[in-house]
Specification:
D-Maltodextrin-Binding Protein, domain 2; 2 domains; 6-stranded mixed sheet; 5-stranded mixed sheet
């Protein structure tokens, strides 16, 4: 696993390919009238036999966990046959819009939350308001950030399956070598600074600052939110990341390099390798790293919530969300059966958690089974202060400007304020262009 595909994680680079797959002439026909979802019957399906095509991008270690769940569902629902097709996420976000536009799309699938608004605006995905109402689902069944992230223009288009937040992974052996207690990892700015100083005194650069979107952009976003800022306004019409909180966040990262806590010019994934090789103590990375580290039997490691560097808690996260796709011809039986599958999988997401995720459903997170997954539970404590991009079509592409600013600053080619200001100017032009492109 060391690196997930940038587009698959909802980051900026590569999203233009997604739009190209649908053409650049503007949004697809709006999903209204005959194209709307079928009515209720989300908890059980008693209609004729149906076959459902379920597409996702779970090509890594999480894939077998999803396949096991699909097989279990099929065994319990003889009148529904779900077939799972798996693609690399970059291919997935090209194939799905293209298939839907020709009337050959899958019936349902998984989508990263940052992509939902774009696909909704283009008419690729269908509203799921009826499913939420039938099951009486509300944000209290999940958590406000992840539940609200599936809404675009006042309509729900996605039901959350999980969140995959950033956490602080640490090498216990390295901490002990600097006289630090691995049972008490740093939880705030002062404790983190103290740990980095002790590590530096032992010749260890404790936190390698990566200039790449994966995971430099994720770390910057978390620090920005911790300092009280935001990437964009709520409507996604104006960049805010160049304001003081953003400058503070990026300055903290660049100071890791300037103060010798990180080497210069860290290569892609070198920060993860350094943790595993005992050359670094900390690595802020995604929850998907759990199973990777578990495979390294010689590594003594732990994971905790991100330390609070700013004035408030905050963490970057992605989220896999269920969607149903627009069909050439509406089939009420398929739509109803698809909702049964979505509901069933959500209720059985403890098995998905074992693949290295935090279940979105609150009842699953509060279960004894999830608590027993020590590492996932530790990262999951952040769920109520996770943040997501605004539900604005095309906004993942705009994040490419932020990626450039982070790269320039951490490589010490530009001061943080200047890098962010330049990026904000470019971001504003892209946001304005997107409003015209998507008819917002």
């Amino acid at each position: 696993m060391t690196r997930r595909n940038l587009l698959g994680l909802g980051l900026g680079a590569g999203s233009a390919a997604l739009l190209a797959a649908c053409g650049d002439s503007g949004p697809n026909e709006k999903v209204t009238g005959a194209n709307q979802n079928a009515g209720p019957a989300a908890t059980e399906y008693s209609g004729p036999n149906v076959a459902l095509a379920f597409w996702n991008g779970f090509t890594g270690g999480d894939g077998p966990f999803m396949k096991k769940l699909v097989d279990q569902f099929n065994s319990e629902h003889p009148n529904i046959k779900v077939t799972m097709n798996v693609y690399q996420w970059a291919d997935y976000y090209q194939k799905v819009p293209a298939a839907v536009s020709t009337g050959n799309g899958p019936d349902l699938g998984i989508m990263h939350v940052d992509q939902v608004a774009t696909q909704a605006a283009r008419g690729v995905v269908l509203p799921l308001e009826d499913l939420a109402k039938t099951l009486n689902l509300t944000e209290a069944d999940f958590s406000p950030p992840v539940w609200n992230a599936g809404v675009y223009n006042g309509t729900r288009y996605a039901i959350p399956l999980d969140v995959h937040p950033l956490g602080m992974f640490y090498n216990k052996t390295v901490l002990e070598s600097a006289g630090l207690d691995p049972a008490k990892p740093p939880a705030n700015k002062d404790e983190y600074a103290n740990a980095l100083d002790k590590l530096k005194a032992k010749g260890i650069q404790g936190h390698w600052a990566t200039p790449f979107p994966f995971t430099g952009q994720m770390q910057f976003s978390a620090l920005l939110w911790q300092h009280g800022g935001d990437l964009f306004d709520a409507q996604g019409t104006k960049p805010l990341f160049a304001e003081q909180p953003g400058v503070q966040a990026l300055t903290w990262l660049t100071d890791l390099v300037k103060n010798g806590y990180s080497p210069k010019n860290v290569a892609q994934d070198a920060d993860v390798v350094a943790l595993r090789n005992g050359k670094a103590a900390f690595n802020w990375n995604g929850i998907w790293s759990i199973n990777t580290f578990n495979q390294d039997k010689a590594l003594q490691w732990g994971v905790a919530a991100l330390p609070q560097i700013g004035s408030q808690p905050g963490a970057w996260a992605g989220s896999h969300q269920f969607v149903q796709f627009k069909q050439k011809t509406k089939d009420d039986n398929k739509l109803a059966a698809g909702k049964v599958f979505i509901n069933w999988l959500s209720q059985h997401s403890i098995e998905w958690a074992k693949g290295g995720q935090v279940p979105a459903r609150k009842s699953i997170r509060e279960s004894a089974e999830f608590t027993a997954l020590t590492e996932q539970a530790a990262i999951g404590t952040q769920i109520d202060y996770l943040r997501f991009l605004p539900a604005t079509p095309g906004i993942p592409d705009v994040m490419a400007t932020v990626d450039t600013a982070i790269n320039e600053a951490i490589l010490l080619r530009k001061e943080p304020a200047a890098a962010l200001a330049d990026a904000a100017g470019k971001a504003q032009k892209l946001l304005d262009a997107n409003r015209k492109k998507y008819g917002a």
